[in-house]
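Two proteins were folded this term; both appear here.
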Amino acid sequence: MLSIEPTGAVLGATVHGLDLRQTLSDAEFAGLLRALGEHGVLRIPGQAIGARHLRDFSVRFGPIQGSVTGRFHDGEVPEVGILSNIIRDGEPIGIADAGQDWHTDMSYTAAKGFVNVLYAVQVPQRDGRPLGDTLFANMHAAYAELPAEVKRRLAGMTVRHDFNVFWERMRTRPGSMRAPLTPEQRAKRPPAVHPIFMTHPITGRTVLYCNPGYAERIVELPDAESREMLDYLFAHQLQPRYQWAHRWTVGDVLLWDHIGTLHNAIPDYRPEEHRLMLRCQVMADRIFDAGFQRQWLRAA
């Protein structure tokens, strides 16, 4: 039977009673959605699953985004990406850029991202301590504590999010194995514009929807004012009181909400300390649909 154990911190809860080799019941799925809105990050420990199980679980939440490069995914289940620092026969077997700074996946797409689902296959350790924590920040709380004058000034404004800005920042870091995006790849990820304040589809509360990774410009402000305000918002949303860290264990499935959180992976492990995760990135097409909400949220 599904049960939810909150961390007691600003984010996070552990989900008990699920075996993701089995199909979720309707009640379990509705319970996960409600818990995701309330806690932002859900840990489902002790799983022993394959790529197909991860895909089948993830697709309940919405369509899965594919890779812009066409690389680093499971050969038999292409919806499942591979995150890893492992080099095999001189070639990386997955995307190795942990430590990508604070961001929200898929804010650069018109549909927006809804959830990431990661499965921990290998977790690096040193001296008995797991490495490679993932940090999260709570955007419900960040909005709630913005000064009233900032909320009034920015009400109704929008932000442009650009995938290539983030890609280039990561590509030019020392040790990165990313190549520049080709014109064709860039065309697959054109910039997208979203409201800076957004009503969360699960909680019905307002969140601050911008992030240091992809948000490049407040559309309605002149360049200098936009830069100044974005810098202010980034500093505000990353205050320690909004943050919580997940420490990985092999077998963890971690599910988190892109609309209500930011995240940042910590690269505190060496190349020989191997990390391997399977990942599905789920888009927000369904969660904003009124019929989907009536079926899974309002009637729950």
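Next, the second protein.
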Amino acid sequence: MDNFYIADAFTNKPFYGNPAGIYVESGGLSDTEMQQIASEVKLSETAFLDQIGDCCFSIRWFTPKAEVDLCGHATLASAHILWELAAADKAQIHFTSKSGDLFARKEGAIIYLDFPAEFPSEITDLPKEIAASLDVPVLSVSKSRLDYIVETDSQKSVVKAQPDQTMISHLDRRGLIITSKSFSPNYDFVSRCFYPKLGVYEDPVTGSAHCQLAPYWADKMGKTSFKAIQLSSRQGQLSVRLNKDRCEIGGQAVTVLSGNLLK
């Protein structure tokens, strides 16, 4: 059986959404080898899986530079591959991770991830790394355990933003999310995400960012179910549901490569 796959997450067509590497049955790899593989592959995240029970798998995520605690798109891509391989024969997959227990569930063509919600708090002092970096209006700045969130005035400003990558690499969080309400009736809000500290200058579609954006926009919109689009060059669409301290993030995925990765 092939041991390595690339799948595009949060899209229903190849070469859109966010590509992730998936290494199946990685138990023989050391931490150093996992990091070397992720650096070689050069995708924003590569997931490493091992089966530990019936429809239960351990999962770890590596960027080209470091291991991370949580990654939405690579988890969605991993669930897609496991179902495609018939390695999981139930409608729900249980993942154990550094962020605790995570779950992936199929609803028709959509895979929903059940992740912990991350609740951002608004701050009044704009970090100098953000103030010196942005060239768009800033309506508010919040931060969570993971990232800083900047709300700007329009979808046009989200698209226009070109934050200084060197400056935001010095933030005391993983990275920076820029967001606004959507001008399209098909979506509630839009975003872009930047993680130069992790070697990912702009992430195409970021599931874990929406664990923060759902509580953020729930406070502002008075609702808990959203349609969202991440406006990177590849773009990706997400369905997001906030349920108390959990966040369900839904999307599709397509396989674009399979083979054997040698070491």
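The two ends are 16 Å apart (CA to CA). The chain has six helices and 18 strands. These notes refer to the second protein only.
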